[in-house]
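user: Please review this fold.
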Amino acid sequence: MAAKGLARAMIVITTISAAVMELLDTTIVNVALNQMAGSLGATIEDVAWVVTSYAIANVIIIPMTGFLGDYFGRKTYYLGSILLFGISSYFCGASHGLWELVFWRFIQGVGGGALLSTSQAILFDAFEPKDRPIASGIFGMGIILGPTLGPALGGYIVEHFTWQDIFFVNIPICIAATILTILYIERKEGEGQKKDKIIIDYPGIFLLTLGIGSLQYVLEKGESDDWFESRTIVILSLSAVVGLVGFVWRELTTEHPVVDLKIFRYKVFGLSTIFTFVAGLGLFTSVFVYPVMVQRINGFTPLETGLSLIAPTMLGVILFPVIGRRMAAGDSPLPYMAIGILIFVFFGFYSGTATPEMGKWDFFPMQVCRVLGVAMLQMPLINQAVAGLQQREYPAGIALTNMIRQLGGAFGIALANNYVTNAAAQHRSDLMANMAMDNPLFVQRLNGSIANFASKTGDYFGATKMAYAQLEGLVAKQAYYLAYLDTYRVVSLFFIAIFPLLLLLRTKKKTKEEIAAAAKAAADSH
């Protein structure tokens, strides 16, 4: 039954706060990676696990939220997830080592994965059917604002307090959300009373966790551990194959799968997942690379980095409801997808022209392109994914779509880390080739630096060493910057590769009943 008056207002506040908190935590750490690396004595490449462990947990838990909500009861599961998120947030902030932090970020992701999907379902039920487009619009605003506010809030906290406080800030929100959930969110009839009838697919859960976890470790650490020269990489590669192949076999043969993979028999859905994977890769990779690049090379503070993302992203707040209304009116998602892909291709190559001297407003046009590409892809992709499914299969289809988007993001971050390491080494080698005494420009630059240091220290020998060290630092900085720019171009190549696949997609005009059913499924399975 739909809520009224104050009760509905409290439900809106509770669900939006919980969802924004979960989304905010996907991006709030991005601007603090440099500070974390320095504090924990880790490299940027290793500290990226703080981001990917959260994403991996989301990938594992998102397709299981419907099942877990049925098993425990939606209110109980939601309340437990809020508490788990708050407790793990405390331990993230209290961590003294990198891998301790990574572990608690994973646990935080387990709790957070339920907040987004369950929040939307609870909010949807609080409105009458005729008012549910309003609920979708409210939640859509939260989906945009969460990732947008993350870098800005994270930047402010890191600049004025410590990086640990980006986790502690969740605790009062969790306490408030817990109290409001107990007071205002009602249990549905029969909620949590189906345990005896529900068969838990323990092997499927184990194989999914084993496969995804092992694969992500291989992608993250393969380069630094010299790939298959490392016994650990070999073992975990085999674990990834066994886990993922075993998971697919299990889910296709059991009568009670935790994730219904049989819907991949639909050609349109199977092809749509390719687009979803690449869209997730582009979204997460671009948001991950930008803060690291501008802080490491352009000299942005964490707060400046966050603020530089807010203005362009606000355009998405305006655009998302417009696209949502067009999808609800029955528009084909294919034209929107085509435009979104082309914009992302342009964004990648345009971003590849950036320079170390650019200020935060110089990046504004590039970030506008990113936001437009995301807006034109995300909602149409969900509609496209369920276009060929039966209505009873919508929840499974949308849950899988969200899982694959998160998986694409985790893969993209791992790819970016490995690619930047390799590309920076190659660029450094190419740049060092110019540091030869037969290069008059190098000799002129070197002599000028030596003279500058010698005039300050009076020590010619020491000045020479300082000049070489300075030039070495400049080369390393330039090598990394070129590597980051190359990463944007590589992301564009993925979008170029999938563009021809649009020709293989077909969508039929949906009836009003099918559109309404898809919207309900999106709310229940986000």
